[in-house]
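User: Predict the full complex structure for these chains.
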Amino acid sequence: MSAVTVAPVAAATPPPLRSVLRRAVGIAPQFVAGLGGTVVLAIVASGGRVVVPVVVQQVLDRGLDGGHAHLTTIRWLVLVGVIAIVATVAANFVMNARLFRATEGGLAQLRVTAFRHVHDLSVLHQQAERRGSLVSRVTSDVDTISIFMQYGGIALVTSVVQLLLATAVMFYYSWPLALLALAAFAPAVLVGRRMQRRLSTAYGLVRVRVGEMLGAIAESVVGAATIKAYAAQGRTATRIDAAVEATAAAQTRAQTLSVGVFIVAEVSAALANAAVIGGGVALAVTGHLTVGQLVAFLFLVNLFVQPVQAATDALNQAQNAVASFRRVLEVLDTPTDVADPGPAGTPIPAGPPSIRFRQVRYAYPGGPEVLHGIDLEVTPGTNLAVVGETGGGKTTFAKLLTRLMDPTSGAVEIGGVPLTRVPFASLRGRLVVVPQDGFLFDTTIAENVRHGRAGLDAAGVVTAFADLGLGDWLATQPRGVDTPVGERGESLSAGERQLVALVRAYVADPELLVLDEATSAVDPATEQRIARALQRLTRGRTAVTIAHRLSTAEAADEVVVIDHGEVVQRGEHAALVAEGGVYGRLYASWTAQRSG
Amino acid sequence: MTARPAVLRRGTAILWRACQEEPRIFTWSLLGSLGYGLMIIAQAYVLGYATDHVVVPAINNGHADRSALAIALLLIAGVAAVKVAGIMGRRIAAGIMQYRLQGSYRQRIARRYLDLPMSWHARHPTGALLSNANSDVEALWYPIAPFPFAVGVFAIMLVTLGLLVATDLGLALLGALVFPAVIVTNALYARAMSQRVTRAQALRADVSGIAHESFEGALVVKTLGREDAETERFAARSYVLRDALVGVGRLRGLFDPLLEAIPNVGTLLVLLVGASRVDAGTLVRVAYLFGLLAFPLRAIGWMLAELPRSVVGDDRVQQVLTATGDLPYGDVPAPPGAGPLALQLDCVDFGYDGAAPVLTGITAGIEPGRVVAIVGPTGAGKSTLASLLVRLMDPDTGVIRYGGVDLRAFAPGAVASAAALVAQQTFLFDDTVRGNVTLGAPFDDEQVWDALRGAQADGFVAALPDGLDAMIGERGTTLSGGQRQRLSLARALVRRPRLLILDDATSAVDPAVEQAILAGLRRAAGTQLDTQPTTVLIAHRRATIALADEVLFLDGGRVADRGSHAELQERNPAYAAIVSAYDTEGETAGSELLG
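Assistant: Here is the predicted structure of the two-chain assembly.
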């Protein structure tokens, strides 16, 4: 019977389940902490359910001998039974506490390990649309496993032990009758396994349908403005109705199939009861079985029914849990595409570094080549602007420079050291990126600035703002550096977020700055502040700006034009304008727009 | 915990509502669980019969009474058959009842989302609305699964007590102690549990919030080398959650064995009390019955345990279902005439409730076929105005008219058939290119391609492997921001709207492509004046403004000025400052994020 109980997990997970579990224990040894003691406790704990049949047998055979009640004997038997039950309750409690501590401890470890690993994956910032699914790896997926353990998983474990113990007691009383009772459950094992397989497919379909339904409903919220503006309510409602009905149909089917398992269990129990009474009477007549033992058998048979039902209820959760477990491990098994050489690497030498691209080529996985052999040398302290049309390769250039990814061939060197040789600790300390959207965390201005330098005090933050000429802006904030910035910094305007991001970069005191210029419209006062802050920030540093405005290129020491994956022009703004080419065209279209 | 009686009362009301909504299926499930419960009692009687008439005589007499044995076996088979029918009725019907209620409430909620105006949507975060339709509905109807069983078990418990009274008062007294003890312990368990589970749920949300934020800011985290600090922040909260969950587990670990032990102790006490009072068969029957009833009795506890969550779920669901603010409609089928619409705004005020007014006293007329740019600083109310113009919501006071007719007088769908808004945030449905353009309206492929050409989207659509049939959206091809905007634009153009509103709808499109799109609109307007739309552009680029016949300068929620670009530039310093801010951008390319 235990085969049926275990079947759900086995059916949902082909061979690698064992290796999945081994991996889990490897990542989080907490899972098996104190397992030996817990197993001993589990055996004692499940004894509680066998106490009653044994006492019933003893009372019938020794307390009611020949129709006379030996009350003293019965009193003693019941007292011992109650003590045994109390003891098993205690053992159960301790066992559960240990199991929950182990599983939750292991899951927390798994969660944190996965979280750390996700931060090392470039997919996180390359494909914004996959971010949500990564979040669910460390949240809802782990939660699903935890909920399974809480509601069904641990009960499943104790049920198996209980079945083994009940079987042992049966064999002790009478091995022929025990075999007979077990034989009654044999068809259930065979039928049950097949049912579990079909059930597991049905539950799988439910999950798919629920996902589709939630997707359809989400459209009515996320796309509300579009749906209303185009009076597409009817169409959306029809789609939602269809998805809701498909979901209910799949759920009803799975539920109906699951009832089959219950029926099999009930029928088997009836068969076992009949077998026990028929066979038991035959044995009793020949003096091989007492009345008490026969009745105890009937009680024990009953113990087989409930775990099967509980296991069926837990099956759906078990499948979800195993699928979630797989997904978490999948993330952990995704190799980090950009490897940290660690302490064995070579740090970037002190002072503003030089930059060198040697025959750098890059193709996105499965895509065409976007950079076709970039050769470029930038002397220390240069303020460089990179311009070019969207899709020309300037963003890829910036990603390679900051080692968010590695070139397909060729090398990027900073301060003469190939980037692949630079330990992250050195790289992140020396090179700072100011991204376009100036992402801020949902905390105060000061806390956000401290991301650039941990432990900086409030006065230090104020000074940093003043250093970049932003003291006047800070003064306009209601609570100064303690002003909360809201989710994603959205209490501030886009331009103001940029200001805080610049200060954050400034306190990190990098020697190489990479700026991705914002394109969003900013009010004139903030615009001026950003320009002033940028000027002070880049002073004395090597700076590379991915420029979207030619005014930025105009102010740079040097301009590099990247077009169709190649450096097509390079020099000072004035010289490039005179030269014409791609830059000349860009400049012409810009001046045309200006004169509007 | 003074709220407890209220929870029980409200929970009962929810269950009653469920019965009223699905009376037939509930009756089936109730009959099933009653049948199942009666068979539990019957099973105990059959066992008692077998003991008295088969087992004991067989041992005493040395041979079995074959007819009594046959009767016992037949009874076992009969009981099992009725039990199977009971299980089917109860579980299938209860499942169907739960799924139907969930489904129907999800449909109702989604319909409210579709009907409520955008001003209501603006007040409610997306995440909250999604969980209203998902987890709140689930929580609301969760008690339905054990509900029929619990009702059935309760009835069976009363029947059992009655039978015990008839059998022996001492055993009846024992039953009257043990059965309620199981239910009360279960209720205590449920109460303690719901507090802890609620806390764990809140902590899960915290952990999830940190993960969201940290991954969203991944670029900052990585480039500032903050991975370890972020992991520490995440771990700290994860460990608090872990401890809370271990607490939940300990509670479960205490109550689960206790709930199992109570009926077991009850069975032993039956032996003690009954041995001197009843015969062996009755003793076995009653002891067996206690054991059989132990598990079903817990169904009452499960149901009680789910009630608090259900009540909270109901509160949230009702907030949506009873939300007011639906737009009233008239019966005018369409704006008068044909061709471009005349647009008129009279003293329009609007504020998102409670907050400061966004628009104040907007009065403006736009003649048919004109192209008007709306310019203003961030927060001036431009997008709000765009939403009002196509009646995604109504002004607080004042009137907006198409061709002289108040928008509120139009029948549902009339405004959408005359006007098209291309919003700042593009939204693509999880559908094909064709489906996204037509939204189910009967346009042929020729018309769709025409619209795609007008939106400069024909090139990349033709390059998609399945062309018009290519799936886009969540599970389909990933499109760039500019491509998404162009598809949204095609969705508007295919309808040949009489009024076209572009809310910064080309911001992610390359300026050269934007010029081509807008010039296309213009050019067409020059040749076919009668069919080309009145156009309102919310513009952030000087080149876009240049395409307009005139400019409406919006500042602080008011129309600050109106005239040609040159006039405003000359006479309005605030306008000049805004436009020169756009000026310095001189964007060479559309926006693209680093990373």
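The longest strand of chain B covers residues 343-350.
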